[in-house]
Amino acid sequence: LLETYPALRQRLDANRAGLYMADLIHHMLTDHDPHPKVYEIFTQTLTQMREPGTMGISLLAFQLNLLSEAGYEPILDRDAQTGLDLDVDEPTLAFSAVAGGTVADNGEGDRWRVRAETIRLLQQVARNEVSSESMDAQSVERANRLLAAYIREIIGTEPAAFRWRFPDLSA
Question: Which tens digit of pLDDT belongs to each residue from 18-43?
Fold first, then answer.
């Protein structure tokens, strides 16, 4: 109650991202089930939104942490179906919400084609080895959209704030 997070009132993109994060928490966690790490990363992300250039990477870290805390952390370091190593030198891989992570890009219907650089970025963020200054904004947005689509599949619905943050992400 002491922190007012002025960016939420001053910038529409920050407001929409904040509403999106709150909506995700509502849909991914059950009432009366404490998750102090989610609270910490939520307030940290709201604070970081003061700087427009850090919002994308902060939102990405938030989504990854929320997925982890809810028990849906995506498998990014190997094939989520077979457990085998993936060839990250390939230009594209795939992501399967059903399998819970990165899979071989073999054209099966449950897979979304994704750039290998997006998976590498997600791996770096998961290991906390990335800074907002070194990130390509398009790569960060692609990774955010991938996690948003994954979350939408997990919860089985599209939260109201989803379209405010990702207006052109089709089902």
Answer: 999 999 999 999 888 889 999 999 99
Tokens of 15: 């407001």
87: left (phi over 0), alpha (psi -120 to 50) or beta: beta
Distances from the Cα of 143 to the Cα of 8, 30, 36, angstroms? 23, 26, 25
Cβ neighbours of residue 127 under 8 Å, at least 6 residues apart? none
Q: How many residues does the chain have?
A: 171
User: How far apart (Å, rounded) are the C-alpha atoms in residues 95 and 154?
Assistant: 13
From the CB of residue 168, how many other CB atoms can be counted at a distance below 10 Å? Answer: 6
The token pair that represents 119 in the structure block: 């998976």
Q: Per the structure block, which two tokens stand in for 76?
A: 């990014």
Instruction: Give residue 95's pLDDT band: very low, low, confident or very high (50, 70, 90).
Output: very high
Express the helix, strand and coil content of the chain in percent, nearest 5 each.
50, 10, 40
Query: CA-CA distance, 59 to 64, in Å (whole number)?
Result: 9
Instruction: Give the strands of the sheet with 111-115, arranged side by side.
Output: 101-103, 92-96, 111-115
pTM above 0.70, yes or no: yes
